[in-house]
Amino acid sequence: MVDRNITLPQDHVETFPNPNPGRDFVIRIRIPEFTCLCPVTGQPDFAEILLEYIPEAACVELKSLKLYTWSFRERGCFHEAVTNEIADTLAHALSPRFLRITGTFNVRGGLYTSVVAEHRAAGWTPAPPVTLAGA
């Protein structure tokens, strides 16, 4: 029997309205099972992608983010290119106040690679950090 509810990779993300647009708040999403292919050897690359963003009007819908990241599984991508492509796609879809993508790639040829790509909305500045006296 064929399952008609099978989901497939997609090249975009879906969004929903920010439930609290009057406040800067951070959303962090860990994607620990990211895979793509080495564009030189065709062998699989494994990474953890960390998405951190401060939404403006929209938030990313999680299942669509999963399906979007799945779309890289059979693509040859340099670490730097794939991290920046994810940042660009999400910045375009969300128009966030701030967005940071960190790709932490597993060892390849004895080397580990981390790539960080950021986006800031024009005119947005973060609130100053709060330091609490503590124990």
Your description of this structure?
It is a single chain. This protein has one domain: 2-Layer Sandwich (GTP Cyclohydrolase I, domain 2). Strand 2 and strand 3 (44-54) form a beta hairpin. It is an alpha+beta fold and 135 residues long. The mean pLDDT is 93. The protein is built from two helices and six strands; from the N terminus they run ββββααββ. It has helices spanning 62-70, 79-94; strands at residues 15-17, 27-37, 44-54, 58-60, 98-108, 111-120. The strands form two sheets. It has a four-stranded antiparallel sheet, with helices on one face. A two-stranded antiparallel ribbon has the order 1-4. The chain starts with 14 loop residues before the first strand and ends in a 15-residue tail after the last strand.
* Alpha-beta classification: alpha+beta
Describe the strand arrangement of the main beta sheet, using strand numbers: 2-3-5-6
The CATH architecture name reads 2-Layer Sandwich
> Largest sheet, if any?
4 strands, antiparallel
Q: What is the first-to-last residue Cα distance?
A: 61 Å
Number of domains: 1
Give the beta-strand count.
Answer: 6
H-E order? EEEEHHEE
- CATH-defined superfamily: GTP cyclohydrolase I, C-terminal domain/NADPH-dependent 7-cyano-7-deazaguanine reductase, N-terminal domain
Share in helix = 10-25%
Low-pLDDT runs:
none
Q: Using only CA atoms, what is the Rg?
A: 17 Å
User: Residue-averaged pLDDT, rounded?
Assistant: 93
What would the principal axes of the Cα set say about the shape?
A: globular
Strand content: 35-45%
